[in-house]
Amino acid sequence: MQEIEQLCATARECYARGWAPATSGNFSVRWGSRIAITPTGLDKGVLVPQDLLEIDMNGSVLGGRGRPSAETSLHTVIYRERAHARAILHVHTIWNTLLSARFDPRGYIIIEGYELLKGLSGVTTHEHIEKIPIIENSQKYEVLAIEFEEVLRAYPDAHGVLLSRHGLYTWGESVAEARRHLEALEFLFEAEGRRLFGQP
Amino acid sequence: MQEIEQLCATARECYARGWAPATSGNFSVRWGSRIAITPTGLDKGVLVPQDLLEIDMNGSVLGGRGRPSAETSLHTVIYRERAHARAILHVHTIWNTLLSARFDPRGYIIIEGYELLKGLSGVTTHEHIEKIPIIENSQKYEVLAIEFEEVLRAYPDAHGVLLSRHGLYTWGESVAEARRHLEALEFLFEAEGRRLFGQP
Amino acid sequence: MQEIEQLCATARECYARGWAPATSGNFSVRWGSRIAITPTGLDKGVLVPQDLLEIDMNGSVLGGRGRPSAETSLHTVIYRERAHARAILHVHTIWNTLLSARFDPRGYIIIEGYELLKGLSGVTTHEHIEKIPIIENSQKYEVLAIEFEEVLRAYPDAHGVLLSRHGLYTWGESVAEARRHLEALEFLFEAEGRRLFGQP
Amino acid sequence: MQEIEQLCATARECYARGWAPATSGNFSVRWGSRIAITPTGLDKGVLVPQDLLEIDMNGSVLGGRGRPSAETSLHTVIYRERAHARAILHVHTIWNTLLSARFDPRGYIIIEGYELLKGLSGVTTHEHIEKIPIIENSQKYEVLAIEFEEVLRAYPDAHGVLLSRHGLYTWGESVAEARRHLEALEFLFEAEGRRLFGQP
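Predict the joint structure of the above. Result:
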């Protein structure tokens, strides 16, 4: 499937940018009620379609090698709560790590006034206010999955969710759209990070 | 046409540098009264000549696939006001975003004293003072086109125009010259940004 | 041997990232009591298996071209003190240089609260506290070797050792694991560096 | 000649790193009293041996296409004053630009305490103190050439010369050594720049 090849190419590119270091990050694509997803612990710099697991919407493994990542349940929650989502990208970057740590106490980050907000689907003006929820990090993924469900409902217009000092989840109606959201959000995080913390 | 291939190569390179993320940026080349220009919404990382639209100096489509970008009118204004311009590059970068935001209230940015100013056509000394106008961002492109015309006339020596928290427009007598202007200006923006905001 | 090819690929990648500039850095892999290690003074950007020296656990040369690096004794100490280590990576980066200089007086750096700590073997939660010893730099390698032995014993859980204003040593049960540790630690050093020094 | 191919490869790599933007920078290699040098205005990203000019030690053109750069005289001065020099690299980088601007009033920059100082020929310890002269930038190259001669004599141990807000000149007994010096100095400039200006 072409989308699976695109997902792997996107993962390899994220690795090359330093956005998925040390086997971190995970990536998935959905068609109908089937999901192809990266298993735990793989080097994303060399990801190929054969590496992916096939799972259903409950996270049960239907085929493929490897062990599901603990974060698989966050993917299935997103697919359930965002009915149009066909691809999900989760990355660890310096700037999303630092911004999520800074705004963790408040629970969300606001980005406004940038032209690049128009890289987010449905946004037609730089005057858009993007409010991205931040969830405190945890290793209890059943709890995280519930919190994800809550923030996805509380922030119906958000194009991403941040896990504090952990990383970003974003999605799209295709791999290409998810990747556009990722590039837009990470650009905005870096611009906002440098602006807020004096560089400039 | 070789210039079209060079324009596409330049766009792909801009993407690779992070200067045209999330399908942002647009690029054009002119010969006579015909313009080849990127349509809206394309991933610049894989741009090829067949992707370009052909338009006339009024922005009317003469051929090619895709929908013209809303910013097409800014290209035609530049070609009218800068008679020698044969190529226009528009990019979104972290440093031009941050500098334009900072100096937006004043309406221009001044760069002086750097050897790399000599990368701008007609500049023969680092003692040159480059004054680049900044226009407040807007989604009303007919208004922006008028403001562009005004600043291009008010700043006849400027090698670029900044849209606040949006991006840079620069141009040249060839794709190679436009690219040289882009590389020079972005280097100067980064140097000046780090100097002004304490890094250093 | 596949591990030797992987070691060279890792060294070339470190060079490409700017982590082994100016022929700096050194890299080794061990099988049984034999070690393949980079000789002194090679450009790591073009490293191939034929460039490596073969030495024993005392650092005596068994084969290969070139002169052993002065830092060879630090590799053999690590292999003795970390019985499971099969590969060692030593790099010079901007962020490990700056952090080691800053925390040199205290003798260690603490990193905690980041999800990417889970990139370190045996770490299962972001609540892990990683304490990495810092040794003052010296050109007396026989003394450094003794200090290395001491800190490896004093910090039995540490995944790396920093030499102040010099670089990081990290290791793993395979080249892949050592590389995962390297990528995780350098990500954490950059995040922590930017957080501590106001950027943010 | 292999050295000429290596020089061009080094120039292309400098461009790729952003160290020779906008056709800036120049590069040369010497054998006996003949020098192969980049002419003015070439894009260094695609430099090939056929692009080079051949000149003598007085800067007179012996062969090749293109016009000599105004900075050619600085190369011949370095070859005269540093008898062992066989290659010269001149680059424009963000960090050498910012550091040279900062220390311009004092006339030199001091770098000490870093292991990477050992990347400079003849340096065997991090306790080395490298003192690099800074010359105020000028477009009067006959004057600059005299000032270059003076500082090369006044700082016989320096491995480079900075032109303020302009760039670095460094050299070596081979292209490989000159490149090692360049990589070491630029690493040190970045580390020192971040340390001095709070990042950290």
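The domain at 2-197 of chain D is CATH 3.40.225.10 (L-fuculose-1-phosphate Aldolase).
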